[in-house]
């Protein structure tokens, strides 16, 4: 793998070692990941890239605790993910990892404010506090005047910002953004997968943000 001389300075958030993932397709076994090792620190801005079938979506699901590896080790903030129960994994997905999906996955009948509040409802935050938190993050993404608008009353870019605000509202350790080419173009570290393996890993550091992992086709 190729690394430049700039190293991340934040604490280690994700540490995966020799991760594999096999899927059974009829009588055939498909090896989506064939021994991937990767370390990701806070304050990194990372794009995960690769052609179709490279294993990038499988890796993203692993990083987001949405799937489990066939073999290998995954530690999140120093804890072995394999030893966590369903409640602990759900807490990580809700509190530590913010997801921004390609289609944004906004609730069509809910306002921007209510969409952003959703992770806080799952986290058990009281109504007054979660509204304050949602208002603050919507202001931060420039949608303070669109809080009471529903998705069909917003432009595509505004819907994207609502989705980003929802991902940010819990102050997660990681933001996982899928298929956002414009954002990926600014990443300071690019991990390129091919045939279930890391082909190249060009590392860098950007101090202004937490970690953003991007799944780009």
What does this protein look like?
The chain has a single domain (12-216), classed as 3-Layer(aba) Sandwich (Rossmann fold). The chain is built from 6 helices and 10 strands. It has helices at residues 56-63, 86-96, 112-122, 127-140, 156-168, 181-184, and strands at residues 12-25, 28-41, 45-49, 71-76, 79-80, 97-100, 174-178, 189-194, 197-202, 211-216. The strands form 2 sheets. It has a 6-stranded mixed sheet, with helices on both faces. The chain has a 4-stranded antiparallel sheet with strand order 2-1-4-5, with helices on one face. Helix 3 packs parallel to helix 5 (156-168) and helix 4 (127-140) packs across helix 5. It starts with 11 loop residues before the first strand and ends with a strand. Mean pLDDT is 84; it is low at 1-8.
Number of strands: 10
Category from helices, strands and their pairing = alpha/beta
Number of domains: 1
- The low-pLDDT segments are 1-8
What keyword list fits this structure?
217 residues, alpha/beta, Rossmann fold, 6-stranded mixed beta sheet, globular, disordered N terminus
Write the layout of secondary structure elements.
Blueprint: E1 12-25, E2 28-41, E3 45-49, H1 56-63, E4 71-76, E5 79-80, H2 86-96, E6 97-100, H3 112-122, H4 127-140, H5 156-168, E7 174-178, H6 181-184, E8 189-194, E9 197-202, E10 211-216
Parallel strand pairs: 3-8, 3-10, 6-7, 7-10
Antiparallel strand pairs: 1-2, 1-4, 4-5, 8-9
Helix pairs in contact: 3-4, 3-5, 4-5
